[in-house]
Amino acid sequence: MKTQEFIYTISYHEDEADVCQLEMRSLFSAENITNFVESTLEIDPSRSPFIKGRIDIKAANESFEELLTDVQKIGLEEDSYKVVFIKGTRNIPFTERKRMERVAGACIKGNVNLHNPDKIYAIMFGNGRWIFGDYQESTSVWLAHQGKPNQYSTALSTRLARAVVNIAVPHPSGTKAIDPCCGIGTVLIEALSMGIDIVGSDINPLVTGKARENIAHFQLNGEVLLQDIKDVTGKYDAAIIDMPYNLCSVLPYEEKLSMLKSARRFAKKAVIVSIEEVDDAILQAGFTIVDRCIAKKGNFKRHVLVCS
């Protein structure tokens, strides 16, 4: 039986290129991504803030005309449908793209509905051949999470938090994660909304209650404990640590080192987010840095480091 293949279409702002590349390496082991990823891995396209949609490939051919023949042989029939052209590796004029949508649509039995179809199909040219398949659009789940009732000026954006979660937990099944400096729960909300088994904790009693309120606001269920990172017990497959800071100061080196040593004790893997370089403390804590990127927002930068 032939293995199902998928195309994931990608879009990102130039400031996000580094984060997107790290997320794609984590999710798909894919390097130097431009506008799409081809993989045999099936994931919900709404997981990533950079994935715009997924094509479940039904037919592929070097010739567009022969692709149409292949689609006709499948014998597709829908109550209502539409076909969309997805940008790939060949620059096709707009009028030609629309023609291709129409002729591909003519290979399917049913009623064309451009506004509210029961089914969406896609065509694109990528990796040297024409592709046709089911198309699932991504939903910007993270965007709705911007409306949480409690906000924190130095918290990660929901978009970056979602990417960081995917970097830390690319394959959620059987993975147990922790955010031991969870603040108001930005990372927790993104992880919980993806069905990831994660627990949060924070030393600050002023934020743990707000984190619980934020989680409940989105009808999610997650545990938030009031505890110091040094007091975390148990073992976790992954930890996500956004190193605390405020607008006026950052943590002293010894405090950062103590936090990272604690994380090394309870986590097999850690994704560490910091506004300053923390390589020395990470290495001294016993971690190895296996991948990294810079997350930019204008002139503001965060270091994102994957450690094992």
Q: What does this protein structure show overall?
A:
The protein has a 7-stranded mixed beta sheet. Strands 10-9-8-11-12-14-13 form a 7-stranded mixed beta sheet. It has 9 helices and 14 strands. Helix content is 30%, strand content 31%. The protein has helices spanning 17-28, 64-74, 94-105, 141-144, 158-168, 186-193, 205-217, 253-266, 279-284, and strands at 6-10, 36-39, 51-61, 77-85, 109-112, 119-126, 129-137, 176-179, 197-202, 224-226, 236-242, 267-274, 289-297, 300-307. It is an alpha/beta fold and 308 residues long. The model has no long low-confidence stretch (mean pLDDT 95). The chain starts with 5 loop residues before the first strand and ends with a strand. The protein folds into 2 domains: 6-137, 2-Layer Sandwich (VC0802-like), CATH 3.30.2130.30; 141-307, Vaccinia Virus protein VP39 (Rossmann fold, 3-Layer(aba) Sandwich). Helix 3 (94-105) links the parallel strand 4 and strand 5.
